[in-house]
Design brief:
The structure holds two protein chains of two kinds. Helices cover 80% and strands 0% of the residues of chain A. Chain A is mainly alpha-helical. Chain A has one domain: Orthogonal Bundle (MetI-like fold). Chain B is an alpha/beta fold. Chain B has a domain of 162 residues: Rossmann fold (3-Layer(aba) Sandwich). Chain B has eight helices and nine strands. Chain B has a six-stranded mixed beta sheet, sandwiched between helices. A three-stranded antiparallel beta sheet of chain B has the order 2-1-4, covered by helices on one side. In chain B, a hairpin with a 2-residue loop joins strand 1 and strand 2. In chain B, helix 2 crosses helix 3, helix 2 runs parallel beside helix 4 and helix 4 packs parallel to helix 5. Classes of the chains: A mainly alpha, B alpha/beta. Chains A and B meet through helix 5, helix 6 and helix 10 of A and helix 2 of B.
């Protein structure tokens, strides 16, 4: 497979253009996961612990939002950020920041829905003890997030998987500009449409390898943490 | 004995308390006063309402009918009450982390928390395991940590729900010794047990429950020698109450 090795060869030889693409891909997706976690984990905890009218409906909608189509999110963010749009004055369209925004919207529901489930399960177990210790609502949320932290890694990884794999949203709001907003997935889409299938496949293999590496690192961190904290 | 100073949780009184779960009556018109002094031990068959009575006395379960008061107050936050569940849940932290958490929850002054935690670990004999993840402890060790965690609240009333139900005699002895020394410090212990021998060893007074009703509440010496009721006589004689 000569063409595959050409992409791998670019990686091994440290081709600056390719490394920039890999770097941007990771930067955008990891930033989106971080932001989505800051929104999604507390939101999930809130939904797990709070009873209010319409909660069940909110959970169903949240679960459904896990399947949000990336192109639709891309389109909405495009309209918001375009010159004529309500946030056009920010001047973010076709920048990495716009890509982070779009991916955050895609990933936050995944992290929130999975966190809700994880924290709900832990809450059932902890409820009586925390009540007996007279822990208030904010303290309960903080305790459950902290004690569920190793399980929540799985939610973050699911979110990262979604962000790293999607192309529909970032190609619309980022524009796939060479050297500025080109990521692995948008490059793969481009090379495929140009007919350079071998290079596209090579890039794909590199992407999969990086995703596996990140998951392995997270898994290792989780196991090490569990050994210490139980 | 006269009680001075800030109002405590004692006497703890139930006035005509009934608790229903849906259609099922779990506690049926129970009136009871718990005074300072030696441990009060709740006995009775499975499903007689022991756990629900303890939970209500802690303030975890509300009365469906009737009134519960703590030192005369109807709304008394459980600042000085602590509860040890039959199956205590270990927080996903170290043994020491569990205690520090409880001390923070009880608003123990920051500078004193480490010392208090170490004292409590010594009391229940877990000093050597301080850094161990709490969930890796054996059943008996978890029970002792749960007791230390309850004591971290510096309670004036301590509720124990079947504290030795699943323990071997050695671990049971450790818990009973701890309960005795806690009671000797003036903490009011209210506990349930299946073990009549344990009730005899620890109780100042006995509360016998059957099918959610309070059958008898008498001083322990009297209860085991001259029970007032037919049910108590059968129970003490080791017959099955059904």
């Amino acid at each position: 497979m000569p063409a595959d090795t050409s992409a791998l060869h670019l990686v091994i030889s440290g081709d600056p253009a390719l490394l920039a693409i890999v770097r941007l891909s990771l930067l955008v997706s990891l930033s989106a996961v971080l932001l989505a976690a800051l929104i999604g984990v507390p939101l999930g905890a809130f939904l797990a612990l709070t009873r209010f009218p319409g909660r069940e409906g909110a959970i169903v909608v949240l679960n459904a939002l896990m399947g949000l189509p990336p192109v639709v999110v891309g389109l909405v963010v495009f309209l918001l950020l375009s010159r004529a749009g309500p946030l056009g004055s920010w001047g973010l369209l076709f920048t990495p920041q716009a890509m982070v925004i779009a991916q955050t919207i895609l990933v936050a529901p995944i992290i929130a829905a999975l966190s809700r489930q994880t924290i709900d399960d832990l809450w059932v177990e902890y409820r009586d003890e925390l009540a007996a210790m007279n822990i208030g609502p904010a303290g309960r949320i903080a305790t459950l997030i902290w004690d569920a932290r190793f399980s929540l890694v799985t939610a973050l990884l699911a979110g990262f998987g979604r962000a790293a794999a999607e192309v529909g949203a970032i190609i619309i709001v980022g524009g796939n500009i060479d050297g500025f907003t080109r990521t692995m997935t948008t490059a793969i889409a481009l090379e495929t449409s140009k007919g350079d299938l071998a290079l596209a496949m090579g890039l794909g293999i590199v992407l999969i390898f990086i995703v596996i590496l990140i998951n392995a690192l997270a898994w290792g961190a989780r196991r090490a943490g569990e050994r210490v904290a139980g | 004995m006269t009680m001075r100073g800030p109002v405590g949780d004692l006497p703890l009184t139930f006035v005509d308390v009934s608790i229903l779960a849906g259609e099922v009556t779990i506690l049926d018109d129970v009136s009871l006063t718990l005074d300072p002094g030696a441990p009060t031990v709740l006995i009775g068959p499975n499903g007689s309402g022991k756990t629900t009575l303890l939970r209500a006395a802690m303030g975890l379960t509300a009365a469906t009918r009737g009134r519960i008061t703590w030192g005369g107050r109807e709304h008394a936050p459980p600042d000085k009450r602590a509860f040890m569940f039959q199956r205590p849940v270990m927080l996903r932290r170290s043994v020491l982390g569990n205690l520090i958490y409880a001390l923070k929850a009880a608003k123990a002054p920051r500078g004193t928390q480490d010392d208090r935690a170490n004292d409590l670990l010594t009391l229940v004999g877990l000093q050597a395991l301080a850094q161990r993840p709490a969930r890796r402890l054996s059943g008996g060790e978890q029970q002792r940590l749960a007791l230390a965690r309850a004591l971290a609240r510096a309670p004036t009333v301590l509720f124990l729900d079947e504290p030795t139900a699943s323990l071997d005699p050695h671990a049971t002895l450790a818990i009973e010794d701890a309960v005795r020394s806690i009671a000797a410090l003036g903490v009011k212990v209210v506990m349930s047990t299946h073990d009549l021998g344990q009730a005899k060893r620890l109780a100042g007074d006995i509360v016998l429950l059957h099918r959610g009703r309070l059958i008898e509440h008498t001083p322990a010496q009297k209860f085991f020698v001259m029970p007032r009721t037919q049910e108590a006589r059968k129970f003490v004689a080791g017959e099955l109450l059904v």
